[in-house]
Fold this sequence. Notes:
Elements: H1 3-13, H2 16-21, E1 24-29, E2 32-38, H3 52-68, E3 72-83, E4 92-102, E5 106-115, E6 120-134
Antiparallel strand pairs: 1-2, 2-4, 3-6, 4-5, 5-6
Amino acid sequence: xxxxxxxxxxxxxxxxxxxxxxxxxxxxxxxxxxxxxxxxxxxxxxxxxxxxxxxxxxxxxxxxxxxxxxxxxxxxxxxxxxxxxxxxxxxxxxxxxxxxxxxxxxxxxxxxxxxxxxxxxxxxxxxxxxxxxxxxx
Length: 137
């Protein structure tokens, strides 16, 4: 198992929120992560569509795993999301986090959340602060 995978395994094992959401880790590499989950009835808002926090939370977890997979502890310092399509109960959504830039202290990431048919549901951007502490795995 690669170091990036060991880091994400360690993070996920202690991440009760991601586990509660039903997030599945699909793929991990240094600076990259793919996560998947199913939208449940209990995640819908008054309009009968997924609360915006659902796609945000999936994307935020993908950001956390991708940025930490580089081997150093990383914490988000700024994030934003644009919702481009509604999500409904039963939708399987996938978040793909891609590193766009990484320096000694700052990392920039883009996360695309897509429905099973490939339709873009949200675009998330995140900036992380990379601490000097390395992951011990």
